[in-house]
């Protein structure tokens, strides 16, 4: 029990440092922005176990869905915005996502497949650890040097593949005989590419300073950084926003702002919003004025995302040219028949 005001303040400050990594205004500084490292550079990190000892892995999976809107209602000159909402399937069996319940049926119709991929769940993975070699000149190590890492499937698959190697004797997160992970960034088709990333071959122990940081701050329970699980009201809001997005309606801040907001429009609901799809960050060859981005390839539905990935029909070449309103009409027609 705290016996003085100073002790209470110290405990509150310690809790704040633990939850934010000593970050300040302008974002959570404990999140390491590996997607911002320069092309042809490498960041070397040391991953750590999850503070939640009931988690068999040293990461947690995050599933989110992007809902694009052409603008904000009541703001005539507003630019297109995107709201990220949690896919409730990430919270375990028995949680049914109202968006995927609809989108899964679209893959049965070749004309709706591209639209289905647009609204499909996006995977990312949360890790924690130390940054040992840091090519980011503007990155400031927070008071708690245990950083969080948000990685997409490309990096995750490299990390996971090593665990299946029969020659691996110890967990890469072992304090005494663990391995560093090297995040190497190159470019492919004007997008960031991390396929040359790899585990170090040589084992190493944590340094005295790294061990001291763990003793002082403890390890994060990574599950506490997942988006809050939606309740009945939030699920209703998510469904409304999804239908409005598909219909091409603007985002309604007055109606939905209490629950979910686009990143940058007030306080964002999306944890680590700037890190989502970090594996697919566009890379500019030379600095240039901001221009309208080129059309990105449709998100790939991964084989382990859902059974529809293996059975989804291939769209005919003529279907890709359908106008958005025609596709929306098809979707509404299907819904009216239910």
Q: Can you give a write-up of this model?
A:
About 17% of the residues have low confidence. The protein is of the alpha+beta class and 338 residues long. The chain is built from nine helices and eight strands. It has a single domain, classed as Replication Fork Single-Stranded DNA Binding Protein. It is globular, with a radius of gyration of 22 Å. Strand 6 and strand 7 form a beta hairpin. Helices cover 26% and strands 16% of the residues. Strands 1, 2, 3, 4, 5, 6, 7 and 8 form an eight-stranded antiparallel sheet that branches. The N and C termini lie far apart (59 Å).
In short:
With 338 residues, the protein is an alpha+beta fold.
Question: Topology of this structure?
Answer:
Elements: H1 5-20, E1 41-47, E2 60-69, E3 81-86, H2 98-106, H3 113-118, E4 122-133, E5 147-151, H4 153-163, E6 181-188, E7 191-193, E8 198-199, H5 208-217, H6 232-246, H7 253-256, H8 308-311, H9 324-336
Antiparallel strand pairs: 1-4, 1-6, 2-3, 2-4, 4-5, 6-7, 6-8
Looking at this protein, list some descriptive labels.
single chain; 338 residues; alpha+beta; Replication Fork Single-Stranded DNA Binding Protein
The run of helices and strands is HEEEHHEEHEEEHHHHH
What average pLDDT do the residues reach? 81
As for the number of domains, it is 1
CATH-level-4 superfamily name: Replication Fork Single-Stranded Dna Binding Protein
Number of helices: 9
């Amino acid at each position: 029990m705290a016996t003085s005001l100073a002790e209470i303040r110290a405990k509150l400050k310690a809790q704040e440092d633990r939850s934010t990594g000593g970050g300040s205004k302008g974002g959570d500084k404990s999140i390491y922005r590996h997607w911002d490292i320069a092309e042809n550079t490498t960041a070397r990190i040391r991953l750590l176990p999850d503070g939640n000892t009931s988690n068999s892995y040293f990461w947690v999976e995050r599933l989110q869905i992007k809902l694009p809107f052409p603008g904000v209602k009541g703001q005539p000159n507003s630019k297109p915005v995107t709201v990220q909402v949690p896919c409730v399937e990430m919270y375990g069996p028995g949680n049914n996502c109202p968006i995927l319940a609809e989108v899964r049926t679209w893959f049965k119709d070749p004309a709706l497949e591209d639209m289905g991929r647009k609204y499909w769940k996006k995977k990312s993975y949360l890790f924690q650890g130390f940054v040992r070699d840091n090519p980011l000149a503007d990155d400031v190590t927070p008071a708690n040097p245990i950083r969080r890492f948000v990685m997409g499937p490309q990096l995750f698959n490299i990390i996971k593949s090593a665990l299946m190697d029969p020659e691996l004797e110890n967990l890469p997160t072992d304090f005494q005989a663990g391995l560093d992970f090297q995040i190497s960034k190159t470019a492919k088709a004007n997008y960031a590419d991390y396929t040359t990333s790899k585990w170090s071959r040589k084992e190493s122990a944590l340094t005295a300073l790294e061990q001291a940081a763990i003793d002082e701050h403890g390890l994060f329970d990574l599950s506490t950084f997942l988006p809050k699980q939606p309740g009945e009201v939030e699920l209703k809001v998510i469904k409304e926003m999804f239908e409005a997005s598909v219909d091409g309606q603007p985002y309604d801040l007055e109606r939905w702002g209490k629950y979910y907001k686009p990143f940058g429009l007030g306080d964002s609901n999306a944890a680590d919003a700037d890190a989502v799809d970090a594996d697919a960050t566009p890379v500019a060859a030379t600095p240039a004025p901001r221009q309208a981005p080129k059309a990105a390839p449709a998100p790939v539905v991964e084989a382990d995302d859902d059974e529809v990935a293996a059975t989804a029909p291939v769209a005919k070449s003529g279907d890709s040219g359908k106008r958005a309103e025609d596709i929306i009409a098809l979707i509404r027609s299907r819904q009216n028949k239910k």
